[in-house]
Fold this sequence. Notes:
Blueprint: E1 2-6, E2 19-20, E3 24-27, H1 33-43, E4 46-49, H2 58-61, E5 63-64, E6 68-71, H3 77-87, E7 93-96, H4 104-107, E8 108-110, E9 114-117, H5 123-133, E10 136-139, H6 148-151, E11 152-154, E12 159-161, H7 167-177, E13 181-183, E14 197-199, E15 203-207, H8 212-222
Parallel strand pairs: 1-15, 3-4, 6-7, 9-10, 12-13
Antiparallel strand pairs: 2-3, 5-6, 8-9, 11-12, 14-15
Amino acid sequence: MVLNRISILGNPNIGVYIFANDQIALVPPGLTEDEKSAIRETLNVELVESKVAGTIILGVLVAGNNNGIVFPRNILDEELYRLRSELKKYNINIYVSESRNTALGNIILVNDRMCVIGTVMEKDEVSKIADVLGVEVVERNVMGLTIPGSLAVITNTGGVIHPDIENGELSELEKLFGVSIERATVNSGVPFIKTGLVANKYGALVGELTTGPEIMRIQRGLGLGG
């Protein structure tokens, strides 16, 4: 298990641009070969290049785990057709949400054991997302915010979360997801950890402004050692 410090398209907010599970990483077009290699080798994944809704902010718009991926309603037909074709060989369920909310990566926090969805999500969408992801879904806000997906990164081996979360709520999330979760920041003090972190069970990528002490906390939280 490894951790690497990188930027994407000259930006340390790498979690805005990338979605990853343990098999694939969805990445925007236009990355350099060095950037692609870092993602592929650190996370031990195959890369799938695409835009979503004509944009490159895949990490904001997309949510999922190893069972399935949820895309927003404004994904373009040609993007969806290509992604279905690319992802078919990985046996990953695909669902296009009809929710008015399109920043699904911010609203949904999920691993292969549990999914927490902010309370802004429509009730009929919650059950559909649960089916696609193959996990129980809990509707709840975290730290009073409807964007749990932007506050934390949870894998099947651990997690990291906004440093201001209270002890009781942190313990509840650890029980729900079945992993230990560490408070951390990224990119020299940014508390919204998802913006600068992409991780799976094999490794993690952090924004290039992430400090040594931040990296230690992230490694510890995700169970990466080092």
